[in-house]
Write a structure and sequence with these properties.
With 793 residues, the chain is α+β, with helices and mostly antiparallel strands. Among the domains are: 2-109, Orthogonal Bundle (Topoisomerase I, Chain A, domain 4); 175-279, Molybdopterin biosynthesis moea protein, domain 2 (Alpha-Beta Complex); 315-386, OB fold (Dihydrolipoamide Acetyltransferase, E2P); 392-503, RNA polymerase II/Efflux pump adaptor protein, barrel-sandwich hybrid domain (OB fold (Dihydrolipoamide Acetyltransferase, E2P), Beta Barrel); 532-590, RNA polymerase II/Efflux pump adaptor protein, barrel-sandwich hybrid domain (OB fold (Dihydrolipoamide Acetyltransferase, E2P)), CATH 2.40.50.100; 751-792, no CATH class.
Length: 793
C-alpha cells in the first residue's frame, strides 16, 4: 500500500525544497549584537561570567527557534505560490519520517552543539546542511554524532528492561466490568509551561468520560452529561465555552475489585471506540510507555547532539484582559521606583468583571512587578519579570552593611575574572562549624535591623562598612559620613537593593539520557538525591538560625502545632522569617520526594505529580503518550496500604495488604460489630509492586525466583491464576479477550450451528469407551472437571 501510493503521488525530494529563509542573516546579525552587549556587561562587571554563559546560550537557542519558524513560513509561502506541497513538510507533519528539529538543521541553522561532557559549546553552527559546514563546524558536529552512537548502544538495553518491568506490573489490569459505580474522579486542565499552553484542555479530555455534568458557564446548558464519552466535537465545545477544568473519570479512582471498568478507562485509542470488556489495557499501557523509551534513546543520534537547552522562563504575560489582583504579595519600591516582590509564595491573579479568577501566576522572590494591584491589563501585557539564572538576596531595610564571620580564604574567597579583571567575592564552605557567614544591616543609630545568613556559592555585591570606614579614616577623608558616597561605594543599602546573588546551575542540555533515568526513577518511586525539605503543616515560618552546625527552621501551624526542620549548613533557604507556607511547600530547593508528597498531601497529589512529571520528560522529547497509560501504571503503584492499627481484623501491625482486600476485610468486621483496621497508603516502585503481586507464579517468573518460590511454599500460598502471565505459564487460556469467563458461556442462537455442534459431541457410550482407553472412570472424570471449573472461577 505504501509503495503504491508513494509511486502514485510522485513525491520526490530535491534541493530546492530546502528553503533557506531570507531573514536568517538579519536574525543572526541581531543575535551577534545581543551577544556583544552581554560581553560588554561582563566587562563593566554588571554580570558574572557564569551568567554570561547562560545568557549567550539563551540568545542562540532563541535565534535557532526563530530561524526555524521563518524557514517553515518560507516553505509554506513557496507552497502557496507554486501550489505544490513541500514533501519535507508533508513527511514531518504526517509523522511518517523526520521531525521539525531535523528539518531545522537541513535548511535553518544547525544551532548549538554539546561537548562530550554534556555542556553546550557557546558558539553555535550558523550554517545548515544545505549551505554546508566548514571544517571547524564539521569538527564540532562530530562530538554529537559520536555521543549519539555511544548512547544508543547503552540505552536500548535500559529501555527494554523498563518495558519488561512495566508489562510485569500491569499485566493483570484487564477491563472487567462496564461501570464500577465510583463517585470519584480527577480534574483535567490544560498544561501550561513557561507561560505557554503546552497541551490544551481539549487534548486531555478527548476519549475520556465525564464524571459529572459539564455546564456551559454562559447560558447554563449541559454540554456533556455525567458518564458520557467526551468526543472531539464535545471537547471543542467545552474549550470554546471557556471552561478551565473538567472532572473526568479515571483509572486512578476506579473502584473495580479486579482490573478496571469501561467508563473509568474511556476510549480505546487503538480502535477509536469505547474500550470493550476483556481488553488487556495493562499491557497496552506498558507497551505505549516502553516503546517510546527506545525512541528516546535513539533520539540523540538523529539530531546529532544539537543541544536542546531548555528555554528558561523569565517573565509572565497576561493571556487575557482583566483586572490585576495581588494575592499574598509583600512588595516594596526600590530606589529606581520599581515594585519588587519580597516574599516567595505570592501570586498575581487576573480577575474578570464578575471578580472571578481567570488566570493566576506565581511570583518569585526578588521579581520586578510591571503592574500595580487593581490595574487593568490587555492580553500579552507583561506582568512580572525576573532573572532566571540567579537567585537574589534583597535588603528590605535601609542602613549600613557589616560583615560577620566573613574571613578571606576561610569563609569566602576572592577571584579575579580573567576576561574583565574585576574581582568578585563568593562564600565557600569552611571547616570551622562555629563560623556563620552573615551580613548585618544597622541603622544610623547603630541598632541591628536585619541579619542575613549567606549560603555557600553566594556572590557578595556589597562591602563591609567597618573596613571601609577604617580605610577612609586612615586616608583622613571626611566624606565617609556622606550617604550618597556610602551608597556609591556599596556599604549602604536601601530597601530593594540586592545584597548578594546565588547563581543557579549553568544550563546543561536536557538530553534524554537525563530523561530515561528520570522516567525510571519516577516509576521505581526512588527517593532522589538531595531532596527538598517539605513543610508538613501550613503556618508561619520562624528561622531560628544555626545550632550545632545545622540551620533550624520552625513552622508554627494555625492551631499552634510546631514542626522543626534541620537544614544542612550553607544551603539556601527558600523561605524567610515570617513567610506563610502551605503544607507541602518546599523550604529549600531540590527535587521532591514522591513518598513525602504522599505522606503530606495524600494520594491524589502524588498521582498528579507522577503523571505530570513522567509526561514532562516525554513531552520534552516531542513524544505524546496519552495520560491514561501512565495512570494505569500509577494505579498499580498505589495498590497497597500498610496497616497502622489492626483493630479486630485478621491483619498484623505494619503488614502490607492490597487496598481492596483491606476494604473488604473492614466491611466484614464492621458487619459483625467489630473495630475496623486503620492503614496508610503506600507507594511502591514498579519492581517492588510486581514482586508483591497476589500471584507467586507471575512474581517468580519476573525476578528473584528462588526467594519468591521459597516464601510462597513456606506460607502455603495459593495462586488463583487471575492475571495473564500465570495462565500462559500453566498453559491455560488467558483471561482476556474472548478467553474471559464473561464470554465463555455465550450460546449463539443460530439453529444450524447449534445442531452441528450437538452432532459433533460424542455420545455417552463413546465417552465411556474413550475414558476406558486412557484409564479413568466416569466418576473420576467428573471430579476432575469440578476442580478445573473451580480453577477457572
Amino acid at each position: 500500500l505504501g509503495f503504491f501510493y508513494a509511486t502514485k503521488s510522485g513525491t520526490s525530494l530535491c534541493i530546492d525544497d530546502l528553503v533557506v529563509p531570507e531573514t536568517k542573516a538579519e536574525l543572526i546579525r541581531q543575535a551577534q549584537r545581543e551577544v556583544l552587549a552581554v560581553e560588554k556587561q561582563v566587562k563593566e562587571g554588571v554580570i558574572t561570567s557564569g551568567e554570561r554563559y547562560n545568557r549567550v546560550i539563551e540568545i542562540w537557542s532563541n535565534v535557532a527557534e526563530r530561524v526555524a519558524d521563518e524557514m517553515f513560513k518560507a516553505m509554506e509561502q513557496r507552497e502557496k505560490e507554486t501550489g505544490v506541497p513541500n514533501p519535507l513538510i508533508v513527511m514531518a507533519d504526517s509523522g511518517a519520517r523526520g521531525s521539525k528539529q531535523q528539518i531545522r538543521q537541513l535548511a535553518g541553522m544547525r544551532g548549538l552543539m554539546n561537548k562530550p561532557t554534556g555542556e553546550i559549546i557557546e558558539t553555535p553552527i550558523l550554517a545548515n546542511f544545505r549551505e554546508g559546514l566548514n571544517v571547524l563546524q564539521y569538527f564540532i558536529s562530530t562530538h554529537g554524532a559520536r555521543k549519539g552512537l555511544a548512547d544508543t548502544a547503552l540505552k536500548t538495553a535500559d529501555s527494554g528492561y523498563l518495558t519488561r518491568r512495566l508489562v510485569d506490573v500491569a499485566q493483570d489490569v484487564i477491563v472487567t466490568e462496564y461501570d464500577c459505580g465510583t463517585v470519584k474522579g480527577i480534574w483535567a486542565e490544560a498544561i501550561i509551561h513557561a507561560g505557554e499552553i503546552v497541551e490544551p484542555l481539549r487534548e486531555r479530555i478527548i476519549g475520556r468520560v465525564a464524571l459529572e455534568d459539564v455546564i456551559d458557564p454562559i447560558d447554563g446548558s449541559v454540554l456533556v452529561r455525567a458518564n458520557q464519552e467526551i468526543t472531539e466535537d464535545l471537547a471543542n465545545e467545552i474549550q470554546n465555552a471557556g471552561i478551565e477544568r473538567v472532572k473526568i473519570r479515571s483509572v486512578l479512582t476506579c473502584e473495580s475489585r479486579r482490573g478496571v471498568c469501561v467508563l473509568c478507562y474511556g476510549r480505546n485509542l487503538a480502535t477509536g471506540k469505547m474500550v470493550e470488556i476483556g481488553e488487556a489495557v495493562g499491557i497496552l499501557a506498558a507497551q505505549s510507555i516502553g516503546e517510546p523509551g527506545t525512541q528516546l534513546t535513539m533520539r540523540t543520534f538523529h539530531i546529532g547532539g544539537t543541544a536542546g537547552a531548555i528555554k528558561e522562563q523569565s517573565s509572565h504575560e497576561a493571556r487575557r484582559a482583566g483586572r490585576v489582583k495581588f494575592i499574598n504579595l509583600k512588595t516594596i519600591r526600590n530606589r529606581r521606583g520599581e515594585l519588587v516582590a519580597m516574599n516567595r509564595n505570592g501570586r498575581i491573579a487576573i480577575v474578570d468583571n464578575r471578580g472571578r479568577e481567570i488566570e493566576s501566576y506565581p511570583v518569585n522572590y526578588g521579581a520586578i512587578l510591571r503592574v500595580n494591584d487593581g490595574d487593568m491589563v490587555e492580553p500579552d501585557q507583561r506582568l512580572v519579570e525576573w532573572d532566571p539564572y540567579t537567585f537574589s538576596i534583597l535588603s528590605d531595610v535601609e542602613g549600613t552593611v557589616h560583615f560577620r564571620d566573613l574571613i578571606e580564604n576561610v569563609t569566602f574567597r576572592e577571584e579575579v575574572d580573567k576576561v574583565t579583571g574585576l574581582a568578585y567575592r563568593f562564600v565557600i564552605e569552611s571547616l570551622d562549624e562555629k563560623l556563620q557567614p552573615r551580613i548585618e544591616i544597622r541603622d544610623d543609630a547603630g541598632r541591628l535591623v536585619k541579619v542575613q545568613h549567606l549560603p555557600i556559592r553566594a556572590i557578595l555585591l556589597v562591602n563591609d562598612f567597618d573596613e571601609w570606614r577604617r580605610r577612609k579614616r586612615e586616608e583622613r577623608r571626611e566624606d565617609w559620613q556622606d550617604k550618597a558616597v556610602q551608597e556609591a561605594e556599596g556599604v549602604r543599602v536601601a530597601p530593594g537593593d540586592v545584597i548578594a546573588k546565588i547563581p543557579r546551575q549553568t544550563a546543561k542540555a536536557k538530553d534524554i539520557v537525563g530523561g530515561l533515568p528520570r522516567v525510571v526513577e519516577l516509576f521505581e518511586a526512588r527517593k532522589p538525591r538531595e531532596t527538598a525539605v517539605m513543610s508538613e503543616i501550613s503556618g508561619r515560618v520562624k528561622v531560628l538560625g544555626i545550632q550545632r552546625g545545622v540551620q533550624k527552621v520552625q513552622v508554627i501551624g494555625d492551631d499552634g502545632e510546631v514542626r522543626e526542620y534541620s537544614i544542612p549548613r550553607g544551603v539556601h533557604l527558600n523561605v524567610q522569617d515570617g513567610d506563610y507556607v502551605q503544607a507541602g511547600d518546599p523550604l529549600i530547593d531540590g527535587p521532591l520526594n514522591p513518598h513525602d508528597i504522599l505522606a503530606i498531601l495524600g494520594v491524589e497529589a502524588v498521582q498528579k505529580y507522577l503523571v505530570n512529571e513522567i509526561q514532562e520528560v516525554y513531552r520534552q522529547q516531542g513524544v505524546t503518550i496519552n495520560d491514561k497509560h501512565i495512570e494505569v501504571i500509577v494505579r498499580q503503584m498505589l495498590r497497597w496500604v500498610r496497616i497502622k492499627d489492626p483493630g479486630d481484623t485478621e491483619f498484623v501491625l505494619d503488614e502490607q495488604v492490597d487496598r481492596f482486600h483491606f476494604q473488604e476485610e473492614n466491611e466484614r468486621v464492621m458487619k459483625m460489630g467489630g473495630r475496623p483496621a486503620q492503614a496508610e497508603p503506600l507507594l511502591l516502585g514498579i519492581t517492588k509492586a510486581s514482586l508483591s503481586t497476589d500471584s507467586f507464579i507471575s512474581a517468580a517468573s519476573f525476578q528473584e525466583t528462588t526467594r519468591v518460590l521459597t516464601e510462597a511454599a513456606v506460607s502455603g500460598r495459593i495462586d488463583f491464576l487471575r492475571g495473564l502471565k500465570e495462565n500462559v505459564i500453566v498453559g491455560r487460556l488467558i483471561p482476556a479477550g474472548t478467553g474471559m469467563k464473561y464470554y465463555r458461556h455465550i450460546r449463539i442462537p443460530v439453529d444450524r450451528v447449534a445442531e452441528e455442534a450437538e452432532v459433533a459431541l460424542p455420545s455417552e457410550e463413546e465417552r465411556e469407551e474413550l475414558l476406558k482407553d486412557i484409564g479413568i472412570t466416569v466418576a473420576e472424570e467428573s471430579s476432575l472437571e469440578e476442580n478445573l471449573g473451580e480453577l477457572n472461577e
